[in-house]
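Hi F.,

I've been meaning to write this up properly since the lab meeting, where we talked about keeping a consistent format for the predictions we share between groups. The idea is simple: the sequence comes first, exactly as it goes in, then the structure tokens exactly as they come out, then a line or two of notes. No screenshots and no reformatting. I'm using this chain as the first example so we have something concrete to point to.
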Amino acid sequence: MEKKNQSHPTDFILCGLLYHSKYDIPLFSLFTITYIMSLLGNLAIIMTISMSSSLQTPMYFFLSNLSVLDICCISTTVPKILYNFVTASFTITFCGCAVQLYLFTWVEITELLLLTYMAFDRYIAICRPLHYTLIITRKVCFQVSISVWVVGAFSSAVHASLTFSLSFCNHQEINHFFCEIPPLLKISCTDTTVNEIFTFATDLFLGIVCFICILVSYLFIMSSISHIHSVEGKQKAASTCTSHVMVVLIYYGTLFIAYINPQSGFFLNQDKILSVIYAVFIPLLNPLIYTLRNRDIADAVIILSIKILAWR
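Output, unedited:
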């Protein structure tokens, strides 16, 4: 019985972002503001798209899905971080850690797949405009949306099952600020070869294959835009892609550095900072990017705000 308790501890200790307690108040304030702004920004996009007749298109349907994922992503990590700051207790239960890892991995995998399909959507819209309404139908949009969520849920379930089937013995300190696969593998006292192989295979597919699909889509898009004669036409076509390109570059750039850089381990503070970027700040950046770089969204937000104020 004692051995079992050691193999599966009832609680883990999250070491947090930084070891110095003097930064707790500034970090608490930063995470609180970021969380509130992210929630408001993504909720504003979801409401704007659902209430604006001009935004009832596949591109904005997938954008609303992305906002839902961003809300789920930041809500999986930040509330627990804030609770730990308030209570000065950086523990998380075994079950709580498993749930957090499952939900976060689910969201991350789903978002990578969704970003890939959004690139395909832009490819069809610009390279095959006459066939767009025939290929990207309402039914297809719902099928793709359900598929990426289901695939993300299944893949995450496999990851979580493999991770929490490991024994952790007396190793209870997770050198991270939330439960994620790499730092948990570091503290396991059993063989993690299967976990590492599956994680590598998943990263290879999601990180490499999906990125190649996005890259190929945009190579065709750039080729099509170059054949547009008018400058105005080129700018209009490019403007529908810039927001997505910026999100992809920030998202993939951060993940590649965090997961693929052989020099970086999860025991270094710079890698925790990278995790903060993709787990906390990207859900805030996405609505800002799409609002500032997409005129249709910006105009719809302004019109909706005016209507709400007038209704009051």
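Notes:
The chain is about 75% helix and 5% strand.
The radius of gyration is 21 Å.

If this format works for you, I'll send the rest the same way.

G.
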